[in-house]
Amino acid sequence: MQQKEKKPREYRGVSDEIREQHQKTKNMTFKERLAYFWYYYKIHTIAVIAILIFGGMLIHDITSSKDYCFYGVMLNSILLSEDKLETTFAEYADLDTQTYDCTIDTSSTLSYDTMTEFDMATAQRLIALVQTKDLDAVVFDSVIYNNYASNGMFLDLRDFLTEQELSAYEGRIYYVDQAEIDAADEDANYENAGLISDQEGAALTQEDVQAEADSHKDPQSMKDPIPVGIFMKDSPFAVKSNAYGDKEPVFGVSATTMRLDTARKYLEFLWDDNVDFASMKEEALY
Known about the structure:
Oligomer: single chain
Number of domains: 2
Structural class: alpha/beta
CATH class of the largest domain: Alpha Beta
Helix content: 40-55%
């Protein structure tokens, strides 16, 4: 009786691959198996480890990140300790820093003289903070403040303080002329708001800067004056910390803030003569 020819077994994909690998390694020592595995699968192993590490870091960041109880920015301040300012204000305002973050950025800078990539990054970040409603209040030097005030970044102080509270800052209030802003709207590029100034700042002398700042103190010269800031040069904060030197610092409230009460407390804090702002100065590194 003629024996039927045995047909080769049909290939079964992964199961055959596994069986083949098992046949190759079944007579190997543990050390040989380890070397074999590393030779063929080291890229896969490294990729898996990297994914696990990245995933762990991402999960940690998500679970450990906290919402803000306050977010302030002090552009172009000089040698001002971020940690001391944050800690002192958090205690002053009785903020819950166990659950939330109190952030006051004193290290960011912005200049219209050269407009480097770092300046562009700062400007973009400020716009993002306003759009995400994270930003509460700022202190900018007057040249920078004017650019942002003209682009609607700051809240009308009449929606922030009572008439009586606002009157306490008489002579220090920063105004913009809404009629002038409306007239210029046709030529404005909103996407570049805060990114591109008229570039006059590069050629301005100290006298020019002061004259520009002073022009925002006179509502009588404007058709539609809107109070959007408070000059801070003679505040306890500016005097004791000397954080702005000869510049004219201006306080403002973000138009999108969701924490008006804390922003009011921050303004009160900056004008409180009992706060030791002098201790918040940092030593120059060189």
